[in-house]
Amino acid sequence: MVKGQLHVVCPCFHMNERSAVENGSFFMRVAIVPGNGCDDINDANWYAWLQDRLQKSGRFTTVACQTMPDPHKARRHIWLPFMLSTLGCSEPDTILVGHSSGAVAAMRLLEEHRLAGCVLVSACHTDLGHPGERASGYYPPSGGEWQWSRIKQNAGGNIVVLHSDNDPFIPLPEAQHVASSLGVELRVCPGRSHFFSPGEELVNACMAVADAAAAATAAAATAALDIDDGAQDAVQGAAHGAAAGSPLSQS
């Protein structure tokens, strides 16, 4: 486009966005990333249960839930590429739900990729002194310092952190540090251990993130439509002015 030239977008290009704004309906994707040790994700913890609940809600176009490669070591250089290529985490309309090692992987992915939001369940920020966790490649110092501001920015600040008050593997202060560093409230769920079983708080967290993402998308779409409408009014006004001043209009 030539510098100084007014760029006009035809309203028909924005019919989907305009309809979504008017109806308040924005469809998103969800990707569920489990903790390590899951040989079959469909038979572990709450992952398949949550997938079914979210699919039945009708709010999401896709709820990806697949067994991860390298399920026991959960190494960063294997999991993050799989999340991008197979679970669809390269799509910015994706809500990422991560549990335990999956929550840690979600945070590292958000350092580099923008998503609609995330739910972090039983997250930690250190390797807890465990050699296997240290070798996974996520934790400082070998995995690099945490880029909290980038995680928050790439999630649009749309982050829910869930943790139990009696997690036998990840102490509560770990999650408190994660939530504090991201500038979000920590939701403490009493007696949920390491979240081995289904629970409504998981569904509620996903819906809260979806609501916030839809609101942000609606606001951005409305602003974009207002800009386009204003540009079209300016062009129409300029066209009328040019027509009024032409020799043909004076004959």
Give a written overview of the molecule.
The protein is of the alpha/beta class. The protein has a single domain (23-215), classed as 3-Layer(aba) Sandwich (Rossmann fold), CATH 3.40.50.1820. The protein contains 9 helices and 6 strands. It has helices at 15-23, 47-57, 76-85, 101-110, 131-135, 148-154, 172-182, 200-244, 247-250, and strands spanning 28-33, 60-64, 94-99, 117-121, 159-164, 186-189. A 6-stranded parallel β-sheet has the order 2-1-3-4-5-6, sandwiched between helices. The longest helix is centred in the last third of the chain and has 45 residues, at 200-244. It is globular, with a radius of gyration of 23 Å. The model is unreliable at 1-25 (pLDDT under 50).
Strand-helix topology:
Layout: H1 15-23, E1 28-33, H2 47-57, E2 60-64, H3 76-85, E3 94-99, H4 101-110, E4 117-121, H5 131-135, H6 148-154, E5 159-164, H7 172-182, E6 186-189, H8 200-244, H9 247-250
Helix pairs in contact: 1-8, 4-6
Gist of the model:
With 251 residues, the protein is an alpha/beta fold. The chain contains 9 helices and 6 strands, in the order αβαβαβαβααβαβαα.
Radius of gyration over all CA atoms, rounded? 23 Å
Overall number of strands: 6
CATH A-level architecture? 3-Layer(aba) Sandwich
Number of domains as seen in the coordinates: 1
**Any idea of the CATH topology?**
Rossmann fold
CATH superfamily: Alpha/Beta hydrolase fold, catalytic domain
What is the CATH C-level name? Alpha Beta
Give the strand order, joined by hyphens, for the main sheet.
2-1-3-4-5-6
